[in-house]
Amino acid sequence: MRKSFVKKPRMDGQMSLQITSMADIFMIILVFLLKTYGTGAIDVTPSPGLVMPLAATVSGPAEGVKLEIAEGAVRVNGAQVAAIKDFEFSSGDLSAVGASKTLAAALDTEIRERPGSQVIVLADRRAPYVTIKAALASAAVSGYTDFKLAVVNPN
Amino acid sequence: MMDGETSRAWSPGVGGEGRKQEQDFDLNLAPIIDCFVVLIAFVMISAAFASIGILDAGIAAGGAAPLAVTDPEVRLKVELSPDGAIGMQLTGKEAREITLPPLKNGGYDIPAMGQKVAEIKAKWPSLEKTRLTAENKVPYQEVISSIETIRKSIPGVALDGF
Asked: Is the pLDDT of residue B117 over 90?
């Protein structure tokens, strides 16, 4: 049998993990995450089940009362203020001008506690326009004049 | 008590020993990796990958007329019908109506509307505001898409129909 001249590595039971490349990968991931962190115009977490509409926008950060219109509830700054069914207010809740009484009352309280004029509307993309109109009318009745529509940037 | 070899390796070299100090050393990266893992986990949990943007929209509501505002030469109103048709009404110095039929799948022909709006804006550069209305059942996504398209030519879009 011929003798092999290739030197076999000595197995001494100890091995050193090369973690320099792992540190490089982690650094790249960290930079990527920090770059994409908080690039939205508003700091908001939509409720589960809320599918926001898509639109390409270029806008700066905005602050204001967050009015959320989901399939079964209307929320102001995260707190449910009115129950709706299939995106629609009950007819008894609507006033003559098309505003929701319960939502207007909640927004009245909100504007008294935190004066401001801006409302950010986070509505589900499937909501009918009549519900959006009712929500905007309620905000207008309460004294809000500046309306922003929150969308998800498809890019 | 230190053994003799270690004490020689770290001796400052005084006393004429003449030994070279050890120049190679391994940086201990393990704590750095630990920090990275914790930071990445934190950022991934708290990050919102969906970038939320803002569309400005006014409402075309009644009320006292603002002072010192000149009437525009033309006014444009866009209306979304429930059957997928888009109506455009131009009033003022040029009065006409444009109706864009629905697409074959019943959807709104929003690119065609954008093209018409751009043509109107090119003809009437002073047009700075559009009123947009929709039938009650029109989904919010269609309203948003219309606002997005109109704003490419005309910056101001006011929601109407109140």
From this structure: yes
Question: Is B157 in CB contact (< 8 Å) with chain A?
Answer: no
CATH architecture of A65-149: 2-Layer Sandwich (3.30)
Put simply, the answer to whether B137 touches A128 (Cβ < 8 Å) is yes
Per domain, the residue ranges of chain A are 65-149
> Are B140 and A30 a contacting pair at CB < 8 A?
no
ipTM value of the model? 0.73
Q: How far is A89 from chain B (nearest CA, A)?
A: 13
Chain A residue nearest residue B162, CA to CA: A133
pLDDT at B5 over 60: no
Three-state SS letters, B23-56: CCCCCCCHHHHHHHHHHHHHHHHHCCCCCEEEEE
**CB pairs A-B closer than 8 Å:** 151
Contacts of B36 in chain A (CB under 8 A): 23, 26-27, 29-30
Q: State the CB neighbour count (10 A cutoff) for residue A22.
A: 15
B34 touches chain A (CB under 8 A): no
Structure tokens given for A116: 């401001």
Average pLDDT value for chain A: 82
pLDDT of residue A11: 60
B chain contacts of residue A52, beta-carbon cutoff 8 Å: 50, 52
pLDDT at residue B114 greater than cutoff 90: yes
Residue B31 vs residue B59, higher pLDDT: B31
Is pLDDT at A69 greater than 60 in this prediction? yes
Nearest residue in chain A measured CA to CA from B40: A30
Rounded-to-10 torsion of CA B60, B62, B63, B69: 50
Amino acid at position A25, single letter: I
Q: In this predicted model, what pLDDT tens digit does every residue of B49-88 receive, in sequence order?
A: 667 788 887 776 544 455 555 677 889 999 999 899 999 9
Does domain B58-63+71-159 correspond to CATH entry 3.30.420.270? Answer: yes
How many CB atoms are closer than 10 A to CB B149?
Answer: 21
